Amino acid sequence: MAQSATLKETPFTWEGTDRKGKKQRGKLLARSENELKQELRRQGIVATKVRKQSSLFQKKGKVSPQDIAIFSRQLATMLTAGIPLVQAFDIIGNGHDNPAMQKLLLAIKQDIEGGTNLADALGKHPLYFDDLYVNLVAAGEQAGALETLLDKIATYKEKTEAIKKKIKKALTYPAAVVVVAIVVTAILLIFVVPQFEELFTGFGADLPTFTRFVIDLSEFVQARGWLIAIALFAAGYTFVYFKKRSRTFRQALDRMSLKIPAIGPILEKSAIARFARTLSTTFAAGVPLVEALESVSGATGNIIYEDAVLRMRDEVATGTRLQRSMENTDLFPNMVVQMIAVGEESGSLDEMSSKVADFYEAEVDNAVDNLSSLLEPLIMSILGILVGGLVVAMYLPIFQMGAVV
């Protein structure tokens, strides 16, 4: 038995019949074929065919935030429909295409079967379920309203992931085009320009300044291109290293990003939307305001706003109204502050925060669409000027010779 416990779980595909004689099939993680058959028998299924999946064709995958958002909605839906918690985990886990997610859910199911409550079972996996998620689930279990809280969590995760996707959409397109421009320029300088240079050596005349500059640049890239590549790689590695390990660097980066034209307003609206959405979700779950603000701070996605919310938490803890503490940060628009003030006075802070989140999520959506419409012609123009300039530089001596002839 001790040896079985040390065996690594592997994926199996199985076919069988249930108590009604209907054919069933699916995937399941197990340490051995016998353990798999025992688990199926416990579910009322007689296995007729069991096959171990080859590791060669097995999808490795990893658990993404989107997987967690989808799982949250599935679990909320199943519990609302009256499906027991363990059975819901069994259905979602065994039906998941991502082996990593399947393994995670089935591990949580085993903890629940062993008597652990859902919040504690989720808390064993902090990489995928943060303190906010676990605390909201715990509040739902204590209040006997787990289905309601899971529905709120699912909505929160869906809205948060939607905001992240919009931000990535705003930043990915320009970055991708810049990379393409660099690659195309490098190809022209390394492979195309030298061909023209050989042609120009037989002209016996001075080349135009622009052409001479492009040829010199081509020779530099050919001779020192490896140094440029190393420098770019080192710069990228250094950036990622300090971004992960230096809070001061991240603060400077986030502060600078908020001041970038066109991009900065989108990041600012995104931070406000996530602040309001998280505040609405936690406060509606019955979490005290001071504790809610601590969870909210880590969900804003920007260190400048995170530090501001932590200062707000400290001020609220000493008796300051939330409205006043928001005004003291100078980061929140007057409309947001006034709506939060109305929520405080009327006792509907969660509802007003939700309305703020809805408004700013729509603002982010519109801003991203407008930015894409603005950047497309601008980037295409820059790319055309860059590539077209190289082409003109190479054909300029030929045009001059034609004019002389």
Briefly, what is this?
With 405 residues, this protein is mainly alpha-helical.
Descriptive report:
It is a single chain. This protein is mostly helical and 405 residues long. The protein is built from 16 helices and three strands. It has helices spanning 2-6, 33-42, 65-80, 85-94, 99-113, 118-123, 131-143, 146-200, 209-245, 247-257, 263-284, 289-297, 303-317, 322-329, 334-346, 349-404, and strands at 10-17, 23-30, 46-52. The protein has a three-stranded antiparallel β-sheet. A hairpin with a 5-residue loop joins strand 1 and strand 2. Helix 3 (65-80) runs antiparallel to helix 8 and helix 12 runs antiparallel to helix 13. The longest helix is centred in the last third of the chain and has 56 residues, at 349-404. The chain is flat. It starts with a helix and ends with a helix. Residues 1-6 and 55-59 have low confidence and may be disordered.
Jot down its keywords:
405 residues, mainly alpha, 16 helices, 6% strand, disordered N terminus
Biggest sheet strand order reads 2-1-3
The biggest beta sheet is recorded as: 3 strands, antiparallel
Average pLDDT, all residues: 83
Helix content: over 70%
Topology:
Blueprint: H1 2-6, E1 10-17, E2 23-30, H2 33-42, E3 46-52, H3 65-80, H4 85-94, H5 99-113, H6 118-123, H7 131-143, H8 146-200, H9 209-245, H10 247-257, H11 263-284, H12 289-297, H13 303-317, H14 322-329, H15 334-346, H16 349-404
Antiparallel strand pairs: 1-2, 1-3
